[in-house]
């Protein structure tokens, strides 16, 4: 934890956290007794299991050493001023269930090993400056129920491995820079209730396999490449909320290009 103290500035946090270190070691036993002695820290059986530093004006970067806290189940450091990369060491957090780093200034690619964590359930990385691609290791995240990577600069193609996530209920991947077509394997994500791919550079026909999603209630496909992202199957019109401006049903014949 002293590595986190060294990598960040918490001088603007109010009330000030009692994070004090001397020579790289905490001044107190953080998890001593029956409760944590540092603000924002939760302990169990003498080990740190959660960090909750939401909206605390924390400035700085995430240290590699955080990956050594292998009892962590929850990291919530959203709405702060974090910059730099998400450390690759996060792939060592074998008990991690929840990760919320939204509303920061993080850059770089999502570490591929992150999605290989066996208990990962809830990932919120939206409203950062992340780039690169969505790793194909996403297919290993079979415990995932929520993934929000919207409002970043992530590009490339949507991996076909998404189709392995049968329990994922919420996927928000727009706006970003994803291109080419929506893979038909998305139609195997049977748990989806919310799918947002708006604000990308997607092309081609919306796959009819999306009609196989029995629980889908929200589908957002607007603001893609209007010249190349052409049409959708009529069966998608049964989705309660289907935002598809500038798209038309594949059975229709537009008279003058794609309608506004």
Which short descriptors sum up this protein?
single chain; 260 residues; mainly beta; 10-stranded mixed beta sheet; 1 helix; 21 strands; elongated; disordered C terminus
Radius of gyration: 21 Å
Mean pLDDT across the residues is: 89
Tell me the fraction of residues in β-strands, as a range: 15-25%
| Outline | elongated
Protein model, in words:
By secondary structure, the chain is an all-beta fold. Helix content is 2%, strand content 23%. The chain has one helix and 21 strands. The protein has one helix at 2-7; strands at 8-9, 21-22, 25-26, 41-44, 47-52, 59-61, 74-76, 81-84, 98-100, 105-106, 122-124, 146-148, 155-156, 170-172, 177-180, 194-196, 201-202, 218-220, 231-232, 241-243, 248-249. It has a ten-stranded mixed sheet, with no helix packed on it. The protein is elongated and about 70 Å long. The model is unreliable at 253-260 (pLDDT under 50).
